[in-house]
Amino acid sequence: MDLRSLDLGALQLLVGVDDHGSLSAAARALGTAQPNASRAIGRLERQLGVRLLERVTTGSRLTPDGTVLVHFARRIVESGQEMLTVAAGLHGDTAAEITVDASMTVAEHLMPLWLGTFRSEHAGTTVHLRMRNSTEVFETVSAGTCDVGFVESPTVPRGLHSAVVARDQLVVIVPPGHKWARRRRPIDVAELAATPLLEREPGSGTRTTLENALGDLERATPVLELGSSAAIRTAVAGGVGPAVLSTLAVAESARSGELRVVHVDGLNLRRELRAVWRPPRTLQGPAAELVRIARRSAQ
User: Fold this and answer.
1) What values do phi and psi take at 148, rounded to 5?
2) Distance CA 128, CA 146 (A)
3) Which of 198, 229, 282 is nearest to 20 (CA)?
4) What DSSP assignment string belongs to 14-77?
């Protein structure tokens, strides 16, 4: 396969399935008609020689091969978006714009509301939003390649300033047929630690929060590491294993009965979501306005 034949739009759709949980949701997010999205993914599958998606009752999800390749697709898409951002800056346009990096849970479940309010109040300002894990957000904020970041990590590196903008809680989730779903009593922390889980990649705020909560308990090796909450939800529903995710990411699946929340004795998984930025201490301009909106929404 020639690199020149690679369809960036199809890669965006593949990443969208990982982020949103289905091809139809990915197509809506990108403003693409469903038939066109299906054809684009079909062409990409033929070019790569692997099946990327499989049909399920709720629509479509990544195959095991698709789960592997979507991480590379995400890197390509993010690099392309960064190139476009830099190119736009070279035009010399003086219109107000900010670059915002947000960890996955914040970007998927909170940022759309915040940006909707921001746009209504600051219609002349362009926002470039990039999704990363918390460690990567710290790196881009420290390097000065974004104006403000939003993270789930319980700690903030020295040299950066931060403000709490929201709070959430992580919960253990399993499919309805799992043995934990049939228990009348909560499981204990030691059993959770000894169980192979579906986990986010190292550097994710969700994973760091869980690791800190479990402390010195000996941990089982993850059964699988995935790059988004949507991919983990799909894998849990498919019976691959239990997982720990934000209540923001599992609320709809828990209400529908697709997943069950399991209580754990003696485990505190509450956390604070933060905005982070470089000095000076007082954030200014559009970035400060976005942080203000985020904090106001949590009240």
Assistant:
1) -155, 150
2) 9
3) 229
4) HHHHHHHSSHHHHHHHHT--HHHHHHHHHHHHHHHTS--EEEETTEEEE-HHHHHHHHHHHHHH
For residues 137 and 204, what is the distance between their CA atoms, to the nearest angstrom? 10
- Quick one: average pLDDT of 61-76? 89
Beta strand residue intervals within 143-194, DSSP E: 148-151, 161-174, 187-188
Q: What's this model's pTM, rounded to 2 decimal places?
A: 0.68
280 preceded by a cis bond (ω within 30 of 0): yes
pLDDT at 85: 60
The answer to whether residues 231 and 154 touch, using CB atoms and an 8 Å cutoff, is no
Name 80's Cβ contacts closer than 8 Å, sequence gap at least 6: 8
Q: Structure tokens of 183? A: 């228990």
pLDDT at res. 93 = 47
Distance in angstroms (rounded) separating the CA atoms of residues 129 and 84 = 12
Tokens of 192: 């959770």
CB 187 within 8 A of CB 262: yes
Eight-class DSSP state of 128? E
d(CA 171, CA 80) in angstroms, rounded, equals: 35
Question: How large is the angle between the packed helices 111-121 and 285-297, nearest 10 degrees?
Answer: 120
Measure the CA–CA gap between 224 and 240, rounded to whole angstroms.
Answer: 9
∠ Cα 57 62 67 (to 5°): 155
Tokens matching residue 141 = 């904020």
Give the mean pLDDT of 111-117.
93
